[in-house]
Write a structure and sequence with these properties.
Elements: H1 8-14, H2 18-26, E1 31-33, H3 40-44, E2 57-60, H4 64-77, E3 81-84, E4 100-103, E5 110-113, E6 118-122, H5 127-134, E7 139-140, H6 151-156, H7 164-167, E8 174-180, E9 186-190, H8 195-201, E10 210-217, E11 219-220, E12 224-226, H9 235-244, E13 254-256, H10 257-262, E14 273-281, H11 286-298, E15 305-310, H12 314-317, E16 332-340, H13 346-361, E17 366-367, H14 382-385, H15 389-399
Parallel strand pairs: 2-4, 3-4
Antiparallel strand pairs: 1-2, 5-6, 6-10, 7-11, 8-9, 8-10, 12-13, 14-16, 14-17, 15-16
């Protein structure tokens, strides 16, 4: 009599040869976690509590050799690959159903080169890991705004943060990367080596391989900085506004850079349910303001927000064809963050966020999508790549012709007729 109610992970694992799994585990320095193992549920759990997926295997890598072994196994067995760095991608790309999770969360080493003013961090490192080491020397690179976020997904999809208008996107600060491609090869990519691959990795998300280490340019920032919210005191610009209203929160003043970087951590705890979408704006107008006010009032959760990001600056200084990241010419980005606790409220919160983006999209000033706030990747990849899409398809066809890294949102290789 066959068993019933198996998860997709259990079904997929049952189809694997026990000898092949044993061979992988024997050569693996880290840990291979199977559906029958006690730590399986912990291994598949990620930050977004709405995501509940069951992989066939979780490969907790201790180094690059483990990543190569996992990629080769996945290719040979026909398993879909998910890559876990910080596990914070809101769409849950860090885990899949029935595939293999290449888990880099134990690979967190960070090394600062003071003379070169660069930092190299492994693919499982978080923003907090990097900031902790670089701030010893009063240096920082342009990363995000929540310290628990993994550097990998943030950087490969763009990477906006507190330093973006001064120093550009996280990917703009990359000097080089080490990456394991679908053929199991370890390559170094930079402007001088494998330049085409380097172009595609900067904005291509995880479509072209698994980046095991990132080398970033550093800048003199910190250890004490003026808080982001010092604009409340810019009387020559905002004086008339402040005469009529009082800020709800005024966090102006000097603080440690690491405190600024972790200020928002408590707003996004592990296990809460999240659905975030974003759309770019060429300019602001009354219609955008009215829409934000309307959806702020109609939000089904008090934890949800509509946020307006001021872009431009150094982000726009880079030509749009310099990297795979396309939407540099937009002055603002509207993000709709649905955050809630009750699983029974999933439908209401998803509908609210989707309707807000859909209505915004009807406005002439709105277009495009951002890979780090993707919803569940409902829109085609072209919405993120713009006119860089065809070149990304060429690179995908060259480096991953069998579409090993085929998670939702990834560009697909060209198929010959």
């Amino acid at each position: 009599m066959g068993s019933v109610n198996k998860t997709l992970g259990e079904e997929s694992f049952a189809m694997l040869s026990s000898e092949d799994v044993a061979s992988l585990a024997a050569d693996f320095a880290g840990e291979i976690v199977r559906p029958v193992d006690p730590g399986y549920d912990d291994a598949r759990e990620i930050w977004n509590g709405m995501i509940d997926r069951y992989p066939a295997l979780v490969a907790r890598c201790s180094g690059v050799a483990d990543v190569v072994a996992a990629v080769n196994f996945a290719r040979e067995q026909g398993l879909e690959v998910a890559v876990r760095g910080g596990g914070h991608n809101v769409a849950g790309t860090a885990v899949n159903d029935g595939g293999i999770v290449v888990d880099l969360s134990e690979m967190t080493a960070v090394r600062v080169d003071r003379e070169a003013e660069t930092v190299r961090a492994e693919g499982g490192a978080t923003l907090g890991d990097v900031d902790r080491e670089t701030q010893l020397f009063g240096l920082a690179t342009a990363l995000g705004a929540v310290s628990q976020t993994g550097i990998a997904g943030l950087t490969l999809n763009g990477g906006y943060g507190h330093c973006s208008r001064e120093y550009g996107l996280a990917l703009d600060n990359l000097v080089s990367v080490d990456v394991v491609t679908a053929d199991g090869r370890v390559r170094t990519a930079s402007r001088e080596r494998n330049a085409d691959l380097f172009w595609g990795l900067r904005g291509g998300g995880g479509a072209l391989g698994i980046v095991t280490s990132f080398e970033y340019e550093l800048h003199e920032v910190g250890p004490e900085v003026d808080a982001l919210f010092t604009w409340f005191r810019a009387d020559e610009v905002f004086g008339s506004l402040l005469e009529g209203v009082t800020p709800l929160v005024d966090l102006s003043g000097e603080m440690a850079y690491v405190d600024l970087q972790s200020m928002l951590d408590e707003d996004y705890p592990d296990g809460l349910r999240y659905y975030w979408k974003a759309i770019y704006l060429e300019e602001l107008d009354d219609a955008i303001v009215d829409l934000m006010l309307e959806y702020n009032e109609s939000a089904p959760s008090e934890l949800s927000t509509l946020d307006l990001w001021h872009l431009d600056g150094a982000v726009a200084d880079v030509p749009r064809d310099e990297t795979a990241f396309w939407h540099r010419d937009k002055s603002h980005m509207l993000t709709v963050e649905a955050n809630w606790e009750d699983p029974d409220a999933d439908d209401a919160n998803l509908e609210w966020a989707r309707e807000a983006i859909t209505e915004t999209e009807t406005l002439s000033v709105a277009s495009g999508r951002y890979g780090n706030f993707p919803g569940l990747y409902e829109e085609p990849a072209r919405a993120r790549y713009g006119d860089n899409y065809d070149r990304m398809v060429d690179l995908k066809t060259e480096y991953d012709p069998e579409n090993l890294f085929r998670l939702p949102g990834n560009v697909e290789p060209r198929v010959d007729d």
